[in-house]
Amino acid sequence: MEYLKYHYADGSSNGRGANRVSAEEYKRNHQKETDQINKELNNIDLLKKAINRFVIQGNNSDFKIDALVYGSVNDFLWLSRDDIMALLLKNRNNYSTGVHFSSLFVQPKNRCLNKNLKYEKDCIVCK
Hints:
Number of helices: 5
Helix content: 40-55%
Order of helices and strands: HHHEEHEEH
Oligomer: single chain
């Protein structure tokens, strides 16, 4: 329930509240709740599932990645699947004021703060 309040940041858990606020304003007024969300999200069992879902395999694949590669053909860095898991588990207790799974930050897509009709068609919160 607290995550949904963070996600919508309008005082509701379903996006139907009257006054949406920015992530910065929400954190200023609700840091204790955000810290509790992070404590729960960074539980080692949940974190392993999240890393698998968001980085290693995804939701629509029968295959796991072997590695992540960053750079060009002649100049690149890479991390194996096991290295990624180990690095993210190692960083799971690093403090941050935002909602996160280890070093992976959660960012709501769009809160439609001013309810601008130009953006409303793409905004899941405004519907």
